[in-house]
Amino acid sequence: MPQLKLDTPIEDVPSVQKRFLPKLKRLGIETVRDLLWHFPARYEDWSEMSDIIDLKSGDEKTIQGIIQKVRQTKTFKRRMFITEIVVADKTGSIRAVWFNQPYIGQILKEGKLINLSGKTALSKNELYMSNPIYEMAQTIKHGDTPRHTARIVPIYPETKGLTSRGIRFILLSALEQAEKLKEFIPVNILKELDIPEINIAIHNIHIPDNTTQVTLAKKRFAFQDLFLLQLKNESEKRALKRQTATAITSKPQYIEAILKSLPFEFTDSQRTALDEILGDIGERHPMNRLLQGDVGSGKTIVAGISAVITADKPNMLQSVFMAPTEILARQHYKTLSKFFRTFTGGIGLITSKEARVFYGDKSETKTTKQELIKDISAGSIKIIIGTHAVLQKNIEFKNLGLIVVDEQHRFGVKQRAKLTHSENGKFSPHFLSMSATPIPRTLMMTVFGNLDISLINELPIGRRQIITKIVSNENRDKAYAFIRGEVRKGRQVFVVCPRIEENPDTKNTVWDVKAVETEYKKLSERVFPDLRIGMIHGKMPAKSSSKSAEESKEEIMREFADGKIDVLVATSVIEVGIDIPNATIMMIEGAERFGLAQLYQFRGRVGRGEHQSFCLLFTDSETKLAHKRLNSLITAKNSFELAEKDLELRGPGEFLGESQSGLPDIAMNAIQNPELLKTAEIKVKEILKEDPELKSHPILKEYLEEFNSKIHLE
Fold first, then answer.
1. What is the per-residue DSSP string for 469-500?
2. Could you tell me if residue 409 is inside a domain?
3. Is 197 left (phi over 0), alpha (psi -120 to 50) or beta?
4. The whole model's pTM is what?
5. What CATH number does residue 141 fall under?
6. Which of 88-102, 125-139, 547-561 has the lowest mean pLDDT?
7. How far apart are CA 225 and CA 666, in angstroms?
8. Domain that holds residue 300
């Protein structure tokens, strides 16, 4: 039998029928490797065989017997197909029943030997098996392990039209034909951790003989991904230290003069963060730092001071600020122009629609893009702010010293690489990313392990606490009355919903969520017909043929910022958005559906002005876990404490989102295992100390290159 290579397309796997191809691809399975790495979500233990006479109600066991009778009926009232069989062994007989699976009656024939695995129940003093797993025993070759019964059975992530049974059939056939995998973890590490070699591990995770094999296979793959992730991070750190950057000089007296010119006092954590950044950019190798802090904690000012110092004598270098949206770019421009009035080196704003330059002393000029690009190339504008527009091919920086990227996960890896390459092969700019997403310490060590991290864990001095309340259904009308009162005072309101469209599959269930369009219609027509209601979400169509969907969204946000909209109904699109000092209420529908860190960021969108602000968490859920989570938002001292709680309650997969991280469930959960994480870190440093180029570890280097091509975590 020819061996299947790992990169063999799933279409070329003999056990895969054409009708299953779109379903497999829906699960992200494109190659043999993807198939083998489609790990079980859980296992059911059907390994214990039993004689029929020994079964008791509630048992979860496997029996083997001859089919004596097959009968199919259809109920008149509920129009339900019922398939019944009677199976007998040498000790007795038992009835098995399946509901709404009429095809089973075509498969199971009298006189055939069958395995049944399932739970027994009692009805009218008669034992029966309800919806058991079945397998024709004569199809099991001598010495082979059954696929679906009489063993520890893997249950896989499924999709409509493709159950775990189908996945097992496809996967086990492919596993038999797949080429042998190359081991890349050194043997001494495998022995020290008592984890299996890769081929044994892949076999045991899909076809385990016992739970110990499952545990050790999971540990192996968890360690494997953490090991590669730490190797990726450590290699990047070392590569960065080999690059050359321009050392940016900062004078203590000049820093103090800037701080004294500000109309507010820096918090201790802002000062610490600024010191860490200035210390890094003072070195002759590029900074690679993450500045993390709550919404409104003053990250932009810290980055702005770093840019001003980069522009000042004797450095005279340029800085660029990149924001994910034009609104946020304008906000950064407005902030820097407001607080650095004496800076005359030029602060430029370039977006798809406008170009502006601020030269200090309240001097702002509107210019053309062509002129601005020309001035940037000449080096006469020292701080440039924009979106991805600053990555245009015709924009060249004369002497770029510092890059600041806000919410950098919203930029593509290639986009960031375009800016961070060495100019003329000589110097690389320093790199500072900013994020308002609170990240637990364990995730920092893994996901952001290639970055140095500065934390701003205090809000600006004098900032009012936002009053947060959980609102149940019976108090909804009171909350609406309160919102109306705030609008009458001249305030504005955010309303956030977790989904854009109603899902018919979950409608009228406890999992039903308020769709933005439905909520907008309800608020504008029934609840607040006299108020000005706006709507914004990620799938909005363009308002007209002359405007793109993105421009339409920008226009709505501008109208809200200008006070032309009282209540803005939105999805999480406002999680990273414009500063609206007049917005005092954040109302969140289906609050239990969001992560705590995300709720924290939503709440940070209000409380930016002089008025007392409120966050109203609307929930239909009555579960203890949902209320425990939401209460954490009220009691947590800061976002970092909240992030740890969110990680504990929801797990890293939910916290980060696997689609963003690219890490499988096993590795994601292993992030919460500090011991395994620490071991991976130690082993990586030991290997790189002896073999920094991995010349003696060619297979490990090969795996690392493949890992790097797939995993982009920043």
1. EEE-GGGHHHHHHHHHHHHHTT-EEEEE-SBS
2. yes
3. beta
4. 0.70
5. 2.40.50.140
6. 547-561
7. 9
8. 293-443+451-456
Report yes or no on 334 lying in a domain.
yes
What does the DSSP assignment read for 112-127? -EEEEEEEEEEETTEE
Phi, psi of 616 (to 5 degrees): -110, 115
Q: What is the CA radius of gyration of the chain?
A: 30
Compute the distance between CA of residue 281 and CA of residue 289 in angstroms, rounded to an integer: 10
Nearest to 561 by CA among 536, 528, 543: 536
Q: What total number of domains does the chain contain?
A: 3
624-635 and 639-656 are packed helices; what angle lies between their axes, rounded to 10 degrees? 140
Under the banding of pLDDT at 50, 70 and 90, the label for residue 513 is very low
The answer as to whether 219 is a domain residue is no
pLDDT tens for 241-292 read 888 999 999 999 999 999 999 988 999 999 999 999 999 999 999 999 989 8
Kindly tell me the sign of the dihedral angle through the C-alpha atoms of 471, 474, 477, 482: negative
633 versus 688: the higher-pLDDT residue is 688
Secondary structure E strands in 510-622 = 533-536, 567-570, 583-588, 614-618
C-alpha dihedral, 283 to 289 to 291 to 292, nearest 10°: -150
- Look up residue 524 and give its DSSP letter: I
Sequence-ordered list of residues with C-beta below 8 angstroms from that of 505, at least 6 positions apart, any chain: none
pLDDT band at 657 (very low <50, low <70, confident <90, very high): very low
Q: Domain check: are 483 and 373 in the same one? A: no
- CA–CA separation, 211 and 285 (whole Å): 49
Tell the residue number behind the tokens 């009298």, with chain if given: 110
Task: Please report the pLDDT score of residue 365 as a whole number.
Answer: 81
| 563/617 same-domain check | yes
Instruction: Look at residue 5 and tell me if it is in a domain.
Output: no
| The token pair that represents 80 in the structure block | 């339900």
